[in-house]
């Protein structure tokens, strides 16, 4: 059996991400860096990277803001629980609010390690609380509606920001 | 596997993020994929919240009505199946009968017996003492001719089938695309607990959901979680039945 010709391909690494590249490749297959591009193409590539980095810094700020909202929610819920208890001696509301407040606190703390999961669950918890309150007393749905919308928007932005910077 | 660049038509012999000839971004990047999955998860949850509100209003408007009960259960089942169609290839695999593992099967039978008894005693007591509410799943169907049979159907049979498909099937698979396996188990348990609309019950539904999610994750099947969920609900219902007729507790 005759052996076929041995094809040798020279390899080198991408200047930016060090992914190995074939000698014939014009662009890096991993990060898109124009290894043999013009100055303008290289400048465009770096501009895109800088914008991406900027977006990531912006995302961090949005995540921190969303985390603070979870802490504020925890505070409001706990204070309301205690207030109800001292006002009406309603142990049921106190325990329910204590559970809710602790969940918000835990989610807020978890945001520093797992921001995407923590903020997504925080958003769902907030939405569920609105619905449960609305079922018991429909008038609560419209009460503070602007604040509710702002909280939902900030938590939602936090979720998508966390998703955008997740490795 | 080779792919062809949609911009310069050059053939590439492996999956790459960027075309090595013209630099066009080819693979949908991870952020886009995560965003699609996140959108679907949020729509899934929002749909269930809306469904819960409509169900509540219907139950209030037409209490003790079998047609309303069947209608609501049917809509729930259709919703779960409709969402599952987005990922039906992966979800069908979860219904493959697993190899019989006696230890796992024994756990799937004994654990829900234990959880049902603990929950019936503790949460029943908590609800009654804190809120003055005494829930009895059996007594809700007394208006029908065969209350126990209807109660078994609506409490023990249908929820395990469709809740497991929705939460440990569709939601679990969607979350897996967004977060790690461990976080997926925690998140599905959390959402499963939330959807039951009781923060007191969160204390037991969350750990119960963790067990169901762990079984789904470890054995890659829905059967164990369906069995556990069924036995748990069935035993709670039987305790309620016995309680109602013989005032055991």
TrEMBL record, chain A:
Ranges that cross the membrane: 65-85, 91-109, 116-135, 141-162
Keywords: Membrane, Transmembrane, Transmembrane helix
Domain of life: Bacteria
Keyword Transmembrane attributed: yes
Name of the molecule in the record: Zinc ribbon domain-containing protein
UniProt source species: Winogradskyella poriferorum
Automatic annotation (TrEMBL), chain B:
Segments passing through the bilayer: 38-58, 64-83, 104-126, 146-162, 183-210, 222-244
Membrane found in the keyword field: yes
InterPro entries in UniProt: Rce1/LyrA-like_dom (IPR003675)
One family name in Pfam for this protein: Rce1-like
Positions of the CAAX prenyl protease 2/Lysostaphin resistance protein A-like domain: 148-235
Keywords of this entry: Membrane, Transmembrane, Transmembrane helix
Matching PANTHER family: CAAX AMINO TERMINAL PROTEASE (PTHR43592), CAAX AMINO TERMINAL PROTEASE FAMILY PROTEIN (PTHR43592:SF15)
Protein name per its UniProtKB record: Type II CAAX endopeptidase family protein
